[in-house]
Amino acid sequence: MSGLLIRPRIRPRVAVVLVYTAAMCMNGLDSTIVNPALYTIAGDFGRPLSAANTVETAFLVALAVGLPVAGWLGDRFGTKRVFLGALTAFTIASAVCGLAPDLNTLVVARAVQGLAGGLLTPVGMTLLFRAFPPHERMKLAKVLIVPTALMPALGPPLGGLLTEHLSWHWLFFVNVPIGAAAVLLGFFGLREHVEGPEGKFDTVGFWLATPALGLLTYALGFGPSQGWTRPAVAVSAALGSVLLVAAVLDQVRAKTPLLKLRLLADRVYGSASALAGVTAAGLMGVLFVFPLLYQASLGASALDAGLSVFPEAVGLMLASQVVDRLLPKLGPRLLTVPALLVAAAVFATLAIPGVAENAWSVRGLMFLIGLVLGTAVLTVQISGFESIGPADMGQAMGLFQIVRTLGGALGIAACAAVIGGGHVTEAAADPGPYRTAVWVTAALVAAGAVIALRLPREAPQPPPFDDEDAPPPGEGLAADEAPAVKG
After folding, report:
1. What angle is formed at CA 59 by the lines to CA 56 and CA 64, rounded to 5 degrees?
2. What is the percent of the chain where pLDDT is above 90?
3. How confident is residue 2, by pLDDT bands cut at 50, 70 and 90?
4. Which of 21, 43, 220, 443 has its CA 20 to 30 A from that of 138?
5. Alpha-carbon dihedral sign for residues 109, 111, 113, 119
6. Residue 145: Cβ-neighbour burial (10 angstroms; 0-12, 13-18, 19+)
């Protein structure tokens, strides 16, 4: 018996949920957790804040660069292989970030994190949605809410706490044990699925779409603070826009496109993707600008400002408990439209003079934002993929994440442009520009309510489905562990 290798038996669908949640929490948290530590990082390395800002921009640009190829890589090499490879790279890069001896090393390691994160999100959601058919995806509300909305909201306060009481190095070290455990669990528990791309790799689409997203993300990241007329920013914005238009034209005409833009013609999926972009713009914008308004109005510290948005996370968790119950009864349209309208009203209330000065009003409104906007976001994520078949799931997830990522970047850039860069100083303590920026986020969410009118009225009827976790009689463990390979 001692010579036998005993592999742990892990139900594939349980493994998918656990590994996806761990990986996406790491990815979602890292998108915002570094913000409160940038001043400290700049001081430790003896560099100006503008140089330290490249830590975040490198992550976001690399994230955008990884998104276009995620769907093709998952289909070509297998979702399990690509996902675990990206998760391993993300974990190793996190350790390098924590050990970085200088700013250049930190920036390069953050870029690797971002590139791996760009693959993790769409491939991870593809794994999740392939494991659960449409009629069971409402159960995923409790899983999807954590990495997509809760972790970015918890990033600023957690980043402030770790930086203040330990050091900024721990912002990255916390990923290492979680990532290592998730890779090990995924190795034994995940099933492989190779869809097989329809044709050869779309080289033209790659060289158009990838630099387009990277250049636009760079321009959106640096434009508001450094000025849109600065040569590097202006050239990036112009060239990125031209390449994006060329990429869209190429992808629509290509026989085997890198990105299946034709999927956006589907009314439900197209509307859900547009909603993902708009709601991401509103949410990321308000999470960026409101802590600055809080500081301008009350003179609060960065940590206090980060903690001011924490009740939003509580509202998000409550939303995750009710969406799966409400969606079958109300349907996507009736659940999403009122939620977005209420969210827009709450956003606007935050901009009213006197509201930000009252700490308890802020906490209550942030809780409502999490509750109502979280309800809308979850409903869109669950219902948007009902008409997408397994063969197109990888492509659909990649496209969905591209729209959402660009939406979030546009929301932050719009708010930063309104407030003139977003830096709070005694000379610029007038809360007026910050209130205007919050009004911008309210308008974005209100626009989402119009788009949501295109969502279906009725919830989908559950089709027949055979549980993947139940092996055929008589085949036992071997059948349960057999890889699902297609193509």
Report:
1. 125
2. 3
3. very low
4. 443
5. negative
6. buried
* Per-residue model confidence (pLDDT) at position 342: 92
Handedness of CA 77, 83, 88, 94 (dihedral sign): positive
Per-residue exposure over 398-414, b if at least 16 CB sit within 10 Å of its own CB, e if not:
bbbbbbbbbbbbbbbbb
How far is the C-alpha of 191 from the C-alpha of 186, rounded, in Å?
A: 9
C-alpha 279/C-alpha 343 separation (Å) is 10
* pTM score, whole prediction: 0.70
Q: Is the pLDDT of residue 104 over 70?
A: yes
Cα separation, 481 vs 293, whole angstroms? 53
Instruction: Report whether 231 contacts 192 (CB < 8 A).
Output: no
> What is the spatial distance between Cα 461 and Cα 458, in angstroms, rounded to a whole number?
9
Segment 137-163 shows an average pLDDT of 68
End-to-end CA, the chain: 38
Cα distances (Å, whole numbers) of residue 259 to 184, 255, 383, 392, 425: 31, 11, 21, 10, 44
At 264, list the tokens. 């956006």
**Structure token digits, residue 459:** 């919830």
Predicted pLDDT at 88: 92
| Average confidence (pLDDT) over 441-451 | 89
Among candidate residues 469, 415, 459, the one with its CA nearest the CA of residue 10? 469
Per-residue tokens: 454:
């295109």
What token pair was written down for 45? 């390395």
Contact 257, 396 (CB under 8 A): no
